[in-house]
């Protein structure tokens, strides 16, 4: 099982989701069964670490994002991942424009797994520190819902 989180530049929201989801998988003993990655629609930050404010906010909750590096979405990702989850509507539209017609993966908004099918994770980049904390809260909700779905799926697999 492979999960890809996607935002605009891969330095705030999607690495936060990657870090939180990795931690949840480790806590549940599923890290060996689910691969997690993140990327951005754009290439502005390729190779860079997550935004310092993102790293600091995550670290306050015990999540280490220091080893992550930004990368851009590749066409191959659509075949490689089972879940491709966008942080907002613009990211989703860009992904849908690039996705193959015969996509055999779940492509949608991340917060649908938080019971909010049309909600977006707001980009905190130009905001205050509170915006980074709000992103963590939303991402934790989505990650818990996604984990429940993936656990159910894995239980049905041999």
TrEMBL record:
One protein family per Pfam: LMWPc
Family: Belongs to the low molecular weight phosphotyrosine protein phosphatase family.
Top-level taxon: Bacteria
Gene3D superfamilies assigned to the protein according to its UniProt record, in alphabetical order: 3.40.50.2300
UniProt xrefs under InterPro entries: LMW_PTPase, Ptyr_pPase, Ptyr_pPase_sf, Tyr_phospatase_low_mol_wt
Enzyme class: hydrolase
Phosphotyrosine protein phosphatase I domain segment(s): 1-149
Name this polypeptide is given: protein-tyrosine-phosphatase
Enzyme Commission numbers on file: 3.1.3.48
Record key words, sorted: Hydrolase, Protein phosphatase
GO molecular function, one term: protein tyrosine phosphatase activity
PANTHER family: LOW MOLECULAR WEIGHT PHOSPHOTYROSINE PROTEIN PHOSPHATASE, LOW MOLECULAR WEIGHT PROTEIN TYROSINE PHOSPHATASE
């Amino acid at each position: 099982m492979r999960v890809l989180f996607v935002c605009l530049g891969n330095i705030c929201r999607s690495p936060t989701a990657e870090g939180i989801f990795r931690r949840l998988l480790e806590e549940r003993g599923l890290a060996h069964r689910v691969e997690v990655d993140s990327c951005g629609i754009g290439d502005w930050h390729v190779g860079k670490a997550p935004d310092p404010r993102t790293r600091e906010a995550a670290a306050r909750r015990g999540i280490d994002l220091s080893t992550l590096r930004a990368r851009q979405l590749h066409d191959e990702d659509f075949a490689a991942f089972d879940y491709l989850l966008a942080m907002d509507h613009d990211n989703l539209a860009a992904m849908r424009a690039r996705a193959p017609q015969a996509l055999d993966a779940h492509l949608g908004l991340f917060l649908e797994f938080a019971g909010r099918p049309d909600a977006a994770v707001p980009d905190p980049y130009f905001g205050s520190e509170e915006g980074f904390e709000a992103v963590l809260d939303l991402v934790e909700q989505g990650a818990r819902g996604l984990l429940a779905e993936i656990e159910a799926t894995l239980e049905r697999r041999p």
